[in-house]
Design brief:
Layout: E1 2-3, E2 9-13, E3 21-25, E4 30-35, E5 42-47, E6 52-57, E7 60-67, E8 70-72
Antiparallel strand pairs: 1-2, 2-3, 3-4, 5-6, 6-7, 7-8
């Protein structure tokens, strides 16, 4: 898990079959967006700024951008 630089968003990685990641507005207690990353385990998450972050893991490096309720890489 990782908080955004402003502290308003919380980024998390799940241990489900698709290794989903999710961004939450933890103050408003709402899901901003989620995405399935695939079968490779996620080992780390880090924010670049409040709308961009990276996920890394087993044969996996992806750069993500939040676009409203969607995430793109």
């Amino acid at each position: 898990m990782s908080f955004s630089p402003s502290g308003g968003s919380l980024l998390s990685a799940g241990y489900d079959l698709d290794n989903s990641i999710a961004v939450h507005d933890w103050i408003a207690k709402r899901l901003v967006g989620s995405f399935k990353t695939g079968r490779g385990k996620i080992n780390g998450l880090a924010w670049k700024n409040d709308s961009e972050f990276i996920s890394v893991g087993d044969r996996h490096v992806k750069f993500w951008t939040l676009n409203g309720r969607n995430m793109t890489f």
